[in-house]
Amino acid sequence: MSTKQERERRRAERLEAEKREASAERRRLILGYAVAGVLTLAVVVGIVIVIAGSGDGNGATVDGEEISEAAHIEVQSGSINGLAADEREGTPPPAVEQGDLEIAAKEAGCELRLELRDEGNTHLRPSDEPPDYKTDPPTSGNHIVPPRQQADGAYSEYPDPMFTVHSLEHGRIAVQYSPDLPEDQQLELKGLFDEDFDGMLLFPNPEMPYDVAATAWTQMIGCPTYEGQATIDALRAFRDTYRGQGPEPVPVVIPDA
Fold first, then answer.
1. Closest Cα to residue 203, out of 30, 195, 212, 243?
2. How far apart are CA 143 and CA 190, in angstroms?
3. How far is CA 232 from the centre of its chain?
4. 3-state DSSP assignment of residue 142
5. Does the structure show a pLDDT above 90 at 120?
6. Distance between CA atoms of 211 and 176, rounded to whole angstroms?
7. Which of 148, 179, 173 is nearest to 245 (CA)?
8. Is residue 89 part of a domain?
9. Are 221 and 213 in contact, with CB atoms under 8 Å apart?
């Protein structure tokens, strides 16, 4: 190959490399614009949700109906999905006696199931087939599309697990109790929720095999019976260990009153 031919070959290779780099840069710019557009839309939607959920400062307003602040429902964290709020005033819980999760669970007779298998996190539409969750209550798996994840707060009705599993993915803790528990025991659990409600859900669960349970993403504590102080300590320790630990944690943002 002559010197001239060699120069032409190198020039052609250089031009081809520059063409590839320019094409890659265009793709990066297009992707950047698309991401920026999505983020902007998310901010606008968030503002609309906050405005729609604001009332006179005493609680969230949904579909024109004000929800008492006793339920601590944060509408900017998700959707209420038509569930009734638990507006009961809880019984203030006793002070902590045992803060170690493993010891507290053992003393309360609760089962700890930790580091469970991650069952996936594909978004599903309401019309899709419900997942066959492998734990009861569910601790991970495919779940409803945003923003249908269950909003933080206390509810008097059982939400579809597809809604609450999405909440767990965002680092939430779901405290669940048998609706057959006596009222005074339910109010003690409500008092525990009221004590520290950021990033928390509370609701009855008629399907699970426990009197009381709490779930986080791939983590669970299940209590066959409610044992008062011991159960409260075990739930507290679980909350303080796993709240905010989902694969896509979303901070709790409470707007100024």
1. 212
2. 26
3. 21
4. coil
5. yes
6. 8
7. 173
8. yes
9. yes
The pTM of the whole model exceeds 0.70: yes
Tell me the CA distances in angstroms from 161 to 84, 228, 243, one per residue in order: 16, 26, 18
Q: What is the DSSP letter of 136?
A: S
Q: Per the structure, how many domains does the chain have?
A: 1
Which of 215, 206, 207, 209 lies closest to 180, judged by CA? 206
- Report how far Cα 132 is from the mean position of its chain's Cα atoms: 19
Per-residue model confidence (pLDDT) at position 3: 60
131 in a domain, yes or no?
A: yes
For residue 62, give both structure tokens.
């949904």
**What 3-state class would DSSP assign to 76?**
helix
Cα 210–Cα 213–Cα 219 angle in degrees, nearest 5: 120
In sequence order, the 6+-apart residues with CB closer than 8 A to the CB of 221 are: 105, 110, 111, 112, 113, 213, 214, 234, 235, 238
Whether residue 85 lies inside any domain: the answer is yes
What is the distance between the alpha carbons of residues 235 and 209, in angstroms, rounded to a whole number? 17
30 assigned to some structural domain: no
pLDDT at 38: 45
- Please answer whether residues 173 and 238 qualify as being in contact, where contact means their C-beta atoms are separated by less than 8 angstroms: yes
The whole domain housing 221 covers 79-242
